[in-house]
Design goal:
The complex is a heterodimer of chains A (713) and B (87). Chain A is of the alpha+beta class. Helix content of chain A is 37%, strand content 25%. In chain A, helix 14 (290-298) packs parallel to helix 16 (330-339). Chain B is mostly helical and 87 residues long. Chain B has one domain. Chain B is built from 2 helices and no strands. The chains are: A alpha+beta (713), B mainly alpha (87).
């Protein structure tokens, strides 16, 4: 399955074709250089300016030069370079006039595709893929778009991308060289000649750098504690597979792990482990968001790498100490940016960099003594985002240890996941794993210290002053608003019988109806760090519209409104807490029907578990897989309640990424105990029900102030 | 505009060097075609394509050599004085 496992004949054939492709690219570069020189001669004012001195000879010379840059049997339409050349090239591109340089480069790209096809025979065997590559190579633009549409229609986007992944860069470059869009020609040339990172989108020609420079910030890192389940998964020894297991445990959450390990020689060294792009908002405060992934790939320094440098500094790695770095996806690009930072390499001794599934082809470590390994699956699109993929014919890094392999699981993005790479390295690539383990031997030993960091684009601004006040409750004084600095939030929505919901609400609100059914919600919060200490809470509520007596609302439009203008909210009918003080506050400040008891609120590996009551006989348990999800924006929650007969309205301000899971596989089980939560759930007929929607915020921050009487008086 | 024969000569020299480079490209392409001809992995479309490239390189080299020679002559004349010869 790996490149090492193919027959010698195939390998020598691939080498032959790649060598030929590289030679053709070099020839194309020479041809382009000649075109630029001839264009310069044709447009230089010195040539035209001397015409009065020798008009006949001057015109003969100009005619000869013009012929050289326009002869279809020679250099072709070869206007290139300089302002006039760039303009002429764009005009030529718009009418599809190609130069000999472009034709030779096209041949180079087609040979690269042929070389990749030898290793991935399905590219030739698949009629849809063959149709696409033939149409692209033959410069049949409409046919190539049709072929791509047919591929997507037949396989779906994910499978189509997976199928085309090994030749993705070549197909894009071919199309860009031959299409009538002059804006993408430069990027196509960069990809085809292997001279630099693709600086623009090869389809539209829009500059990637223009997007990347939007990612600004000096970078910041703050110490955070791993969740208990994460802490349990972090390894206590150092090795490649242990570091990969750590990365899997941390996940793409915008965090990085720094560890110290005691090497076999008794010397303490340090390992920086950086997961890939943070899932969710593309322009989050995390430097590992989509924008950060762009900038880390295209720029030499970005907030991601600067935040990592601050984490290493905060960890207290002594000057001159030996460091190894392991990164996945955008994390790999970020650690390579650190590796090419001469100041960083002067401060520390960066001995090893292992980039997994990362676009790092055009990055160079500042120190020649830094050992670099790049591991890429040929069906993973992400490593080819810098323009060079499986078809690369240039020996960009003769001194790197490069593992570029294929495996039978072609589906992207599954083949990009760190878990997939880890499984490949653990089970399918023993030689590569052994080689890297041997190199990392100085880092094999017990972990002596471990610290997780949350990374940010910027240092936190001076804290916004929050006006706080104390209220006295039966449980003691409570500071309002109650703030949660770090926590987990799970919400599950169920459809319930409208009459049952109305009975439960009484005159305290009007349940929103959806298809004749009402909506019940379970809100579960694990407040790991809050102004009231660590505590958990679970609320059962009914989704209600304006309890003030106005007409029923247009619910879907209401969902878009800001919380302070939204009438749609949830009336909490029962609330359970793990802490007496919080319970007292809930009862006395908001008037919730509050209870203290055992609670579990957990979410791990795509499964949620919420439990109320004693573990042996819980009043309720909501447990099971979340199913596929998609990132959404966090929305504040409007809460209605009654205190002493007065209706109150409050809202919980929510921050942090959130995912919606529209088809969860979790199921609610209601216990037999005479617990208010169990009683209400039974009344609503929810025993054994599956939620229609789950929302998960794994890194939630929130704030909740006292309620105000509603309707406003 | 001042007359600068040296600038024209510089263009002539560059294009002359490019003409030689393209002759070398044609030679490389011939060697490449010969190398690939015997290998079964070579795609069948490659021979005709490379042959077309060789021909184009030879023509382009001749074009550049011609342009270089014309520029050289032009530079020499501009250094001397007006020229009334046929265009």
């Amino acid at each position: 399955m790996s490149t090492d496992a193919v027959p010698d004949d195939d390998r020598s054939a691939r080498l032959l074709l790649r060598t030929a492709a590289r030679e053709l690219a070099e020839i194309a570069t020479t041809l382009r250089s000649a075109s630029v020189h001839a264009t310069a001669a044709a447009t230089d004012g010195a040539v035209g300016g001397a015409l009065p001195r020798a008009p006949a000879a001057g015109l003969r010379a100009q005619r000869a030069v013009l012929r050289a840059v326009t002869n279809r049997r020679g250099l072709g339409y070869a206007v290139a370079g300089g302002t006039a050349g760039a303009l002429g090239a764009k005009l030529g591109g718009m009418v599809g006039a190609h130069s000999l340089a472009v034709r030779v480069m096209t041949t180079s790209l087609r040979l690269r595709i042929a070389a990749v096809t030898l290793q991935n025979p399905e590219l030739a065997a698949d009629p849809l893929l063959r149709r696409l590559s033939e149409a692209v190579a033959a410069d049949r633009e409409i046919e190539s778009v049709r072929a791509l549409c047919a591929l997507v229609r037949d396989r779906g986007t994910a499978r189509a991308l997976s199928a085309i992944a090994p030749v993705f860069g070549e197909v894009l470059a071919l199309r860009a060289l031959l299409d009538q869009n002059p804006l993408n020609d430069r990027t196509a040339w960069l990809i085809a000649s292997g001279s630099s990172v693709a600086s623009a989108d090869p389809i539209t020609g829009l500059s990637n750098r223009a997007i990347a420079v939007l990612d600004v910030g000096e970078g910041a890192a703050r110490r955070v504690a791993p969740r208990p389940d994460e802490a349990a998964r972090l390894r206590s020894r150092g090795s490649l597979l242990d570091f990969l297991a750590n990365l899997c445990a941390v996940g793409p959450t915008g965090r990085a792990l720094v560890q110290s390990v005691m090497g076999p020689d008794g010397i303490e060294r340090h390992v920086v482990q950086v997961p890939g792009m943070r899932i969710g908002d593309p322009d989050h405060e995390s430097p590992g968001d989509l924008l950060g992934a762009f900038s880390s790939t295209l720029l030499d320094s970005a907030p991601f790498s600067r935040a990592l440098a601050k984490a290493i500094d905060d960890f207290g790695v002594p000057a001159g100490a030996e460091i190894a770095m392991v990164g996945h996806s955008a994390g790999g690009a970020a650690i390579m940016n650190l590796a090419q930072d001469a100041m960083f390499c002067a401060r520390y001794t960066l001995t090893h960099v292992v980039a997994i599934g990362s676009p790092v082809d055009f990055k160079r470590p500042a120190s020649p003594h830094t050992w670099v390994a790049s591991i890429t699956n040929q069906h993973d699109l992400v490593p080819s985002l810098d323009g060079q993929g499986a078809g690369n014919c240039f020996d960009l890094h003769p001194d790197w240890y490069v593992v570029d392999y294929t495996d039978p699981t072609h589906l992207f993005p599954a083949c990009h996941s760190l878990e997939h790479y880890t499984a490949n390295l653990a089970e399918d690539l023993p030689e590569a794993r052994e080689h890297i383990e041997r190199e990392l031997r100085p880092y094999q030993g017990p972990v002596t210290r471990s610290q997780l960091y949350q990374l940010y684009d910027r240092e936190a601004p001076a804290r916004r002053t929050i006006e706080t006040r104390r209220v006295t409750t039966a449980g003691g004084p409570v500071e309002l608003p109650i703030r949660c600095y770090e926590g987990l939030a799970l919400t599950a929505y169920f459809t319930v019988d409208a009459q049952a919901a109305a009975r439960l609400l009484g005159d305290r609100g009007r349940a929103v109806r959806m298809g004749g059914r009402a909506l019940a919600a379970i809100h579960a919060f694990d407040n790991r760090r809050s102004s009231l200490g660590e505590h958990r809470e679970v609320h059962l509520g009914i989704v209600v519209d304006d309890p003030g007596g106005r007409q029923p609302l247009r619910t879907w439009r209401e969902l878009l409104a800001r919380a302070d203008r939204r009438a749609l909210g949830t009336h909490f009918v029962a609330s359970a807490f793990t802490d007496d003080l919080v319970c007292a506050a809930a009862s006395e400040v908001w008037g919730h029907a509050a209870f203290v008891g055992d609670l579990r609120v957990e979410c791990d590996a795509g499964r949620l578990h919420v439990e109320v009551g004693a573990p042996r006989d819980p009043a309720m348990a909501l447990s099971g897989p979340l199913g596929p999800g998609l990132p959404i924006t966090a929305r504040d929650l409007v809460v209605y309640s009654h205190r002493g007969g007065i209706p109150l309205r409050s809202h919980i301000e929510e921050r942090g990424g959130r995912r919606a899971h529209p088809s969860p596989g979790a199921r609610l089980t209601v216990g037999t105990a005479d617990h208010p939560v169990a009683r209400h759930l039974r009344d609503l007929g929810l025993d054994g029900a599956r939620p229609m929607l789950c929302l998960v915020s794994p890194a939630r921050r929130s704030r909740r102030d006292a309620g105000v009487p509603w309707p406003a008086r | 505009m001042p007359v600068r024969p040296d600038a024209i000569t510089a263009h002539a020299q560059t294009l002359g060097a490019d003409a030689e480079a393209l002759t070398e490209c044609a030679t490389r392409l011939r060697a490449l075609a010969a190398r690939l001809r015997t290998h079964k992995a070579t795609p069948p479309w490659l021979y005709d394509t490379v042959n077309a490239h060789i021909t184009a390189c030879v023509v382009a080299s001749a074009d550049l050599a011609e342009a270089s020679a014309r520029l050289r002559a032009y530079a020499a004349l501009t250094a001397e004085g007006p020229d009334d010869g046929p265009v």
